[in-house]
Amino acid sequence: MKEDRTGIQVQGQLALSLLAVDPNGLGGLHLRSRAGPVRDAFCKPIKQLFPSARRISPAISDLQLFGGIDVGETLTRGNVVRSKGILETPTPLVFTMAERCEPGLAARLAQALDTAMEHCLILLDEGAEDDEIAPQTLTERLAFRVDLEGLRHVELAELVLSKDTIQDARNRLNTISIPDQTAAALTVTAARFGIVSLRAPVLALAAARAHAALNGRETVTDDDLMVAVQLVYAHRATQMPADEDEEEPDQSDTQPDDQPDTQSPDQDESDLTLPDDLLIDAVKAMLPFDVLSMLEGTGRVKAASGSGGAGQKKRGNRRGRPLPSRPGRLDGGNRIDLVATLRAAVPWQTIRKRQHPGRSGIQIRPSDIHVRNYQEVSDRLVIFAVDASGSSAVARLAEAKGAVELMLADAYARRDHVALIAFRGEAADLILPPTRSLVQTKRRLAGLPGGGGTPLASGLKASAELAQRARAQGLSPSIAILTDGRANVPLPGKTGRQAAQEDAQAMARHIRALNVPSAMIDTSVRPHRDLRALCDVMGAQYIALPRADSKGLSRAIETALGE
pLDDT tens digits, residue range 386-443? Predict the structure, then answer.
């Protein structure tokens, strides 16, 4: 494993060198690593290769990025004074804590990368979990991705590359010639690995040219192409390429043996036979073992959901993460953003003073008012409603207990709360109130009895009531129903199986009206049509797991509830 990590480190240093040669054509580099000595040692050459690099963070404002009216200087001088933004000057940008980048900021930076102002971006991604990652809007525009996870500080070698070498490569870059079929070979290779974006072949071609220039060559060679596809395609692959023998039928029996060769003698064979197989093998060699097995087994790499462990995001006007100010009005519930309001009013002062020469000071109109905007993130609560009726209740409760414990194992990092409701006999009981305590969970689940009928309506009602209380307390509730039978016990005051099904339908409609994410896990040997119909009424995900264990149940719930 050490050799594999060292190889990745060498590839990462090569990516930095190529980015220094052609920053505009390659876009940038996505560095996935926690802050520490390993990342510091890897990033040390950045100061040498990009001496004019500017650091930015997710908290950077539009005024700092794009420039705009400097309110202080404008008020002092009496005329409009504009401040210069970072993006107005072509310069490399080092984006720290990129995993916290908001979609709006990512879109504005992506637009800057798409312009011809020769910006390049180095993302320092410090995400600890798979779903804590820099926005795809930015990463797809960057040629390279380096993951330093598992690499030790002693394994890092110092990158020694003189400024003269980089400058010579830059001067030689525009003179590098490209064989005729290079672009086609790169496009075909990308398609065989399931890479649908045309940015990837363009970036790979730029990487090949930069590698040729760095090595003093006048034309792109096979070695340059192999390095380029390794650096650009390996982390973008979504499927394993099928063998050509399986894709193309054998045509030896359909063509006569004396058929003449259709290739023109005037064509250069070297231009028509670029090493497609070598490019495929080069990308495969850079795929990590676990990703390779995943691609071969499923044909697709599951993308990170991006939801993280946080609950629902909502806009507020009092607390939370600050968002860009927006136009508004003072209604007693909003907080005015004084700087943004002045910035909106300053350009109109000349016209307003001509209209009202007798007024002194700054004239502010209602249309200038900007109010503060915040984004609050609430904790998530997963409500398990478990059918404890019948002879198999013990097995189902054991599965639920295992799933709850698995989800609580990450509760401190993901801010999840868990509650457990058991319905059996005539009613539903709240066995475990919302908690993050694993010790309390084990105590409450120990020795839980089972048996009796299936009061599914009571279980749904108790889940809906708990979800409403949790939402009033600022939590984001989700409901997971675990059952293997049909409703046969109605709500109190009614009798009969038909009434039980009608009550269950009514409670399902109530949960749908609450707009609570929910999932129905059917653990019966044969999936019930009634449960599937109930899911449609409730707007829930239906999951048939006749042989569910705790791990399978936990994965199914996380997938269904979008966690």
Answer: 887 764 555 555 666 666 667 666 554 566 788 888 888 888 888 888 887 767 666 7
CATH superfamily of 2-161: P-loop containing nucleotide triphosphate hydrolases (3.40.50.300)
Helix then strand count (H, E) for the chain reads 24, 16
At which residue do the structure tokens 């231009």 appear?
271
Q: Among residues 479, 518, 474, 470, which one has the least CA distance to residue 382?
A: 479
Question: Is the CATH number of domain 182-241+272-308 3.30.160?
Answer: no
User: What pLDDT does 153 receive?
Assistant: 55
Q: Where are the domains of the chain?
A: 2-161, 182-241+272-308, 313-377, 380-560
Q: How many Cβ atoms sit within 10 Å of the Cβ of residue 563?
A: 21
* Beta strands 427-435 and 82-84, pairing class: unpaired
Give the pLDDT of residue 438: 65
Residue with token string 């790499």: 301
Q: How far apart are CA 386 and CA 418, in angstroms?
A: 13
CB 221 within 8 A of CB 163: no
Query: DSSP 3-state assignment of 481?
Result: strand
**Tokens for 365?**
């109109």
Indicate if the pLDDT at residue 297 is higher than 60: no
Model pLDDT, residue 271:
47
- Quickly list H helices, 115-198: 136-139, 163-173, 182-192
CATH 3.40.50.410 fits 380-560, yes or no: yes
Residue 201 has pLDDT above 90, yes or no: yes
| pTM given for the model | 0.54
Is pLDDT at 447 greater than 80 in this prediction? no
Cβ 136 vs Cβ 96: under 8 Å: no
Please count the CA atoms within 13 angstroms of the CA of 542 that sit on its side-chain side.
15
Neighbours of 84 (CB within 10 A): 12
Pairwise CA distance, residues 456 & 392, whole Å: 16
Q: What is the pLDDT of residues 320-361, one digit of tens each?
A: 567 777 888 776 667 888 888 888 888 888 888 888 888 888
- Whether 2-161 and 380-560 share one fold: the answer is yes
Please give the C-alpha separations between residue 520 and each of 211, 476, 544, in angstroms, as whole numbers: 54, 18, 8
List, in sequence order, every beta strand (DSSP E) within 66-224: 67-69, 82-84, 92-96, 120-125, 144-147
pLDDT at 167 over 90: no
